[in-house]
Amino acid sequence: MAVSESQNASTEFAGELHVAPKTVAVPLFAVGVVLAFITMHFAGAAGMQRRVPLFYRDFLTHNYIATFGYLLTFISSLLFFIDLFLSYRRPKVTVDDPWQINDVQQSFEWATSCPPPVYNFERVPPIPVADPAGHAEPRERH
C-alpha cells in the first residue's frame, strides 16, 4: 500500500499537534528560569540588596526582566499541567498494531496487546523464522 504525500503530511501534522504542548512548555520553562535567575544574579552582582521593600530605579530593568522570566516559567508550568490534566481526563485509545508491522516483520513487540498485560503473553506465540542462525541455504556439492 503506497502512502501519498498528503497522507504523510497530515500524519506528521497530527503527530506535531499531539507533542506540541510538551515541545512548547519545556523550552519555555527553561528560558523563563534562566531569565529570572540569571538576571537576579547580575542585579545582585551589581549591588542590589535582597529582602528590601522598595527597589532602586537603578535595578528597574533587571526587575522587569526577572518578572518576565517568572511569568514565562508560570505560563509554561500552567501549559504543562493543563496538558497533563487533559491527557488524564481523555486518554488516547490506540490499536494493537497501528502500522500492521507484524504482518511483515513478525516480532514479539507487536504480537502483544496495547497496553500489554502484566504477564505479557499467556503462551509464547510462534514466530516463523526461515533460518534461526541466519545462514544461507547450503549448496549441493558436485
Write structural notes for this entry:
With 142 residues, the protein is an all-alpha fold. The protein folds into two domains: 5-89; 94-136, no CATH class. The chain contains two helices and no strands. The chain has helices at residues 5-45, 60-89. Helix 1 packs antiparallel against helix 2 (60-89). The two termini are 44 Å apart. The model has no long low-confidence stretch (mean pLDDT 77).
Helix content: 40-55%
Largest sheet: none
Outline type: rod-shaped
Bin the strand percentage. Answer: under 5%
Q: What's the β-strand tally?
A: 0
Q: What is the CA–CA distance across the termini?
A: 44 Å
What's the overall average pLDDT, rounded? 77
- Low-pLDDT runs: none
SSE-based structural type: mainly alpha
Order of helices and strands: HH
Write the layout of secondary structure elements.
Layout: H1 5-45, H2 60-89
Key words describing this protein structure:
142 residues; mainly alpha; 2 domains
Short account of what is shown:
The protein has 142 residues and is mostly helical. Helices cover 50% and strands 0% of the residues. It has 2 helices and no strands.
